[in-house]
Amino acid sequence: MAVDPRPALAALPRVQRFGATERRLHTIQAWAFSVLLLTGLVLYLPFLAQIVSDRPLMKGIHLVTAVAWLTALALVALLGDRDALRRTRRDIERFDADDLLFVRTRGRSRTAGRFNGGQKAHAIAQAGLTVLFTVSGVLLWLGERDTALRLPGTIALHDAATLLLAVLVAGHIMQATSHPQSLEGIRRGTVRASYAAEHHPGWDGEPPADAEPRAERAGPGRIALAAAVVGLGVAAVVVLV
Amino acid sequence: MPAEPDDLQPPIGRRAFLGFVGVGLSSLLWGGAAMDLLAQSTRLVPESLRSALPFGKGWRIYAVNPPHPRFDPKTWALRIEGLVERPQTLTYAQLLALPRVRQTSDFVCVTGWSVDDVRWAGVRFDDLLAAARPLPAARALRFVSAERPYEDSLTLEQCREPDALLAYAMDDSPLKREHGAPARVVMPQMYGYKGVKWVSKIVVTDRVEDGYWQQRGYDRDAWIGGSNGR
């Protein structure tokens, strides 16, 4: 009787990398970015506008996607595992000696914890860009309706944010596709323990011992419902106006 | 629970985030000027390369009813009618045969972008209307686009501004489809929405009528810097 020498994939020990809430946020961010970039480029580049000349349709998709994106982010943040998100935020916003070493060795150091210096900087830039896109996008929309709200830099900010985000995401995708095991982390949430031990000793997978105690929550269900109603309302206004 | 050592450190990442957002938001005030400077600096770059740069030539193509009208020189005609003695139907060749003027002027869009030093060629409105002979009651021109229902009007006085014309060439080549081929209105002193593209008919009227964007809240006299809340 032949025995498959490879152990079953599921039987291999794995290390926790991302929880369901984080992966869902990532999926939302990735889809929204793809659709917004594609429709945005058609609105922005004349040669694409020539090919896809249905500007009103592209604009409609762009606006509805933007509203759906922010609504989805808010919903996941409200309904998801907020303790995990808080831990992730803590991991990202604190820079330490490992990050300095990471920069000094141009990314070759292996002492980083769950996120290396580059990943932290990327995440912070993404978060900032989310705010900047939202503000400049809302101002673009309002500016079409009230001339007093056309600020001199609205278009410049939206454009510059697009350019920066495109560069960031291109680098992000390059990194992810050149580290397939790492990619597993965002797809399945876990990576093979042997891979983590060899390449990323800092990915211990244990929830940090200093996790903050569970904060009191004021009816997340009701807040989420309110957010959903507001989001749908805004979407309806965008579609109808 | 005792604080971990790194709890005592300021979260550098959060400061970076706030700083980044702060600088980004402040660009709402200075970003327009910065973009202009950037566009100016790209003038050092050769023309062919410049059109490929994201900040090189700031044209954005706006249309209201896709797809862009197609131009066929064999069948195209420009109709001039309304308060005229002799209504005209000009072929493309006849349009090109009218007295040709060239000018370099800036194009400014009401949404905030602009393109400096566009080289136009075309015909002044007095020359365009000469054969049709407007009647004494004539006060304005209504430009009807092949892209329905886009249209807009200018008073005859505005049409006689020294830099107003019906353009059929841009930057030394025939007007491209997305810019309104074969002919568009160019009124450099007003925002771009007054510059009807794909002009197919000109109606001479006794008063200015509201055009496409005026019906949607924009000013009729769209003087740059003196209308639409600016």
Interface with most residues: A-B, 47 and 46 residues
> Which CATH class of chain A?
Mainly Alpha
Unreliable segments of 5+ consecutive residues of chain A: 207-219
Looking at the structure, what is the overall shape of chain A? elongated
Strand content of chain A: under 5%
* Shape estimate of chain B: elongated
Provide the helix percentage of chain B. 10-25%
Radius of gyration of chain A: 21 Å
Can you put this structure into words, describing what you see?
The complex is a heterodimer of chains A (241) and B (230). With 241 residues, chain A is mostly helical. Chain A has one domain (6-210, 218-240): Transmembrane di-heme cytochromes, Chain C (Fumarate Reductase Cytochrome B subunit). Helix content of chain A is 68%, strand content 2%. Chain A has a two-stranded antiparallel sheet with strand order 1-2. In chain A, α1 runs antiparallel to α3 (55-79), α3 (55-79) packs antiparallel against α10 and α6 (117-143) runs antiparallel to α7. The longest helix of chain A has 27 residues, at 117-143. The termini of chain A are far apart. In chain A, 22% of the residues are buried. Mean pLDDT of chain A is 78; it is low at 207-219. Chain B is 23% helix and 25% strand. Chain B is built from six helices and ten strands. Chain B has a five-stranded mixed sheet with strand order 2-1-10-5-6. The longest helix of chain B is centred in the first third of the chain and has 30 residues, at 12-41. Chain B is elongated.
Explain briefly what this protein structure is.
The complex is a heterodimer of chains A (241) and B (230). Chain A has 241 residues and is an all-alpha fold.
Furnish the topology, listing elements before pairings.
The complex is a heterodimer of chains A (241) and B (230).
Chain A: E1 14-16, H1 20-44, H2 46-51, H3 55-79, H4 82-93, H5 97-104, H6 117-143, H7 154-178, H8 180-188, E2 190-192, H9 193-199, H10 220-240
Antiparallel strand pairs in A: 1-2
Helix pairs in contact in A: 1-3, 3-10, 6-7
Chain B: H1 5-8, H2 12-41, H3 47-50, E1 77-82, E2 88-91, H4 92-97, E3 101-108, E4 114-123, H5 125-129, E5 140-145, E6 151-155, H6 156-159, E7 165-170, E8 173-174, E9 184-186, E10 199-205
Parallel strand pairs in B: 1-10
Antiparallel strand pairs in B: 1-2, 3-4, 4-7, 5-6, 5-10, 7-8, 7-9
